[in-house]
Design goal:
The structure holds two protein chains of two kinds. By secondary structure, chain A is α+β, with helices and mostly antiparallel strands. Chain A contains five helices and 13 strands. In chain A, helix 4 runs antiparallel to helix 5. Chain A is globular. Chain B has a single domain (9-210), classed as Glutamine Phosphoribosylpyrophosphate, subunit 1, domain 1, CATH 3.60.20.10. Chain B has helices at residues 66-87, 93-106, 153-159, 166-183; strands at residues 14-15, 19-24, 27-32, 36-38, 42-45, 51-55, 58-65, 113-121, 125-131, 137-140, 142-145, 191-197, 201-206. In chain B, strands 1, 6, 7, 8, 9 and 10 form a six-stranded antiparallel beta sheet that branches. In chain B, strands 11-2-3-12-13 form a five-stranded antiparallel beta sheet, with helices on one face. In chain B, a hairpin with a 3-residue loop joins strand 4 and strand 5. In chain B, helix 1 crosses helix 2 (93-106). The chains are: A alpha+beta, B alpha+beta. At the A-B interface, helix 3 of A face strand 5 and helix 1 of B. Chain B: Belongs to the peptidase T1B family.
Amino acid sequence: MSLTPLVYSQWMGCSWDFGSINVALEGLLEGGQTKTPKPMKTGTTIAGLVCKEGVVLGADTRATSGEVVADKMCAKIHYISPNIYCCGAGTAADTEKTTDLLSSNLTIFSMNSGRNPRVVMAVNILQDMLFRYRGQIGASLILGGVDCSGNHLYTVGPYGSIDNVPYLAMGSGDLAALGILEDRFKPNMEMEEAKELVRDAIHSGIMSDLGSGNNIDICVITKQGVDYIRPYQESEYKDKRQKRYKYGPGTTSILTEKIVPLELEVVQETVQQMDTA
Amino acid sequence: MERHLMDSQIKGVSTGTTILAVTFNGGVIIGSDSRASIGGYYVSSKTINKLIQVHDRIFCCIAGSLADAQAVTKAAKFQISFHSIQMESPPLVKAAASVLKELCYNNKEELQAGFITAGWDRKKGPQVYTVALGGMLLSQPFTIGGSGSTYIYGYADAKYKPDMSKEECLQFATNALALAMGRDNVSGGVAHLVVITEEGVEHIVIPGDKLPKFHDE
């Protein structure tokens, strides 16, 4: 039974191709005057903090594609394991896939070893993966979780740098959110106060940053379990749909009908006996 | 929404930094500031740990790209542990420095990280090694590194004495860090100092406001 992590960094002395392929492609495309399609970014505000009973993570729910809001109810707090959740900022596809991959790896690890994964393990796997791709994976992540060694909050940058911190904000709205957190954070806060502080930090990001908006999601992780409140607070600027845009059968009338039978002929028949002894 | 990296050659988080290591009579003191920045204008962390323990009596401090430095020290930690298990004895400081040097030299095109390795071993006692950006390995009685080191070359050269006592050495290291953090904008935060001797390892943290002041009006 192998317990070696499935995403093991073997970069020592081996190929650095993961980053160079993209860079070469970009060069070719620019020369040929073709524009690479703009990836959907989560211009985002995400925040997290460690409180007395656990970890509180928060995020807005707006995903932008250029200047258009592509998704008004995007889920930026991703499930990693029953005791670990991850907020993602940067390119939406990258954060989605990276956290998915991490979650699968950790589930297999849990099954093999019979233990719940620790937050440091998730962080190490992420660091190895992102470092190998030399910043081409545009994922800035906040990992928070509770395990046997305590409550933890980590930041993982797109180039593979990590830091263990008591409170954190990332994304395009991070400076606004960080202002609120810096002012009111205290170690060992009570749960309700912590939730309000994260809400206020995300709210500040939503108000001051064009790339963040809509609703606020909060995820509370404690030893007892996880409370994923989606949405914790709805946007004050919701508009009402003018009509129902669903069309029942019969809306479009059928003018003519033509049936053409397909003539099939059996060319070859093979029979294979299944041994069900 | 997009923030542009101005002037900085390093992509992502960098430890524009002040790091130093000094030998004294019976041990070595290794020290650093705690600031990590992005693009030279945003402090992404005020409390980053730049003193990484790679073995029981061997520490290394990092400068340059944080991602590269963390990845290299991770690989180095593994290799040094493995080496120590194979040899059935604690590794020599020179061996640890060599491991870092091999990693930096063989991957010099892709990496942007420099290190100072310091520690104590039974064979040669307290030692300090520098591993520069391209993979050069140098042994010195004391060394300073990082962007903040340019401001304290004069101070270090003038004030260093061989065979200092532990207290004198602590004062020297603290003053050097304080002077550099006072003049370099990408160094700051708290001063981390680790004293490594045969007996063990002692970690001292001095908050920014408790550092010695030099004409700070």
